[in-house]
Amino acid sequence: MAGTTDRSSTHLTRRLVQLYVGLALYGVSSALLVRAGLGLEPWGVLHQGLAELTGISIGVVSIIVGAVVLLLWIPMRQRPGLGTVSNVFVVGLAMDGTLAVVGDPDGLGFRVPVMVLGIVLNGVATGLYIAARFGPGPRDGLMTGLNRVTGRSIRLVRTAIEVAVVVTGFVLGGSLGAGTVLYALAIGPLAQFFLRIFALPEPADAAATAAPGDPSAPAPPTGSGPVATPESGQAILPQ
User: Fold this and answer.
1) How many other CB atoms are found less than 10 A from the CB of residue 51?
2) Contact 176, 167 (CB under 8 A)
3) What gap in Å lies between CA 28 and CA 73, rounded to an integer?
4) Residue 79: which H helix or E strand, with range?
């Protein structure tokens, strides 16, 4: 019994470490894309545009937007997990912290490597935090909630959200560029690769007894059509 408890405790500790390291690295990667100045990921374009409009730091804007999106879960009856709530705060704080210590690179010869590093690091962060299985990010939950409520495919809902986010952010002054395009092309394969790298094996006792809705229960496969509301441990896509 003691051995089983120790294994479960170690497994939980590793999941928690992966969650918070992943979220922190996600903030770092987003900050590197800002410093590269060659275009941001879709939600980053919106965050930067709102930061330009309000004068608030981009990390704080990210926290505010995440909290607002989380409120939209309520009418859709989405259930947040520890990773959902942590996502709101950790990513924005890590982003502002990185921007405070990392300056703007000089010249295209430095900006391009910083952009590539940011995108790759974003894939690493995505693999870490999703593989921890502590719940989807606020923006992911918005996507899956709209998928369930409207009956539209995940692909269509995600595309509609990100187009709306990018257009709004660009109008407000957010940065579009080569980094935006490269991110869109690379993040899927990178996330898939690092999800396999950081996947956590289920403890034998947990795999046998996990009940539906338990954060350690493996998530069901998803397709392109409507999906059920994700349980607190299910995350489908990065932020």
Assistant:
1) 21
2) no
3) 26
4) none
Per-residue pLDDT tens for 37-87?
Answer: 999 999 999 999 999 999 999 999 999 999 999 999 988 888 889 999 999
Sole residue written with tokens 């989807």:
136
CA torsion angle for 132, 95, 76, 156 (degrees, to 10)? -90
Q: What is the rounded (10 degree) CA torsion for 14, 195, 45, 92?
A: 0
C-alpha atoms less than 13 angstroms from C-alpha of 40 in its C-beta half-sphere? 27
123, 204 Cβ separation under 8 angstroms: no
Of 38, 37, 183, 175, whose CA–CA distance to 99 is shortest? 37
How confident is the model over 114-156, as pLDDT tens digits?
Answer: 999 999 999 999 999 988 989 888 988 888 888 888 988 878 8
The Cα 163–Cα 148 span in angstroms is 20
CB contact at 8 A, 110 and 46: no
Residue 206 contacts residue 136 (beta carbons within 8 Å): no
CA angle 192, 93, 116 (to 5 degrees): 40
Model pTM?
Answer: 0.80
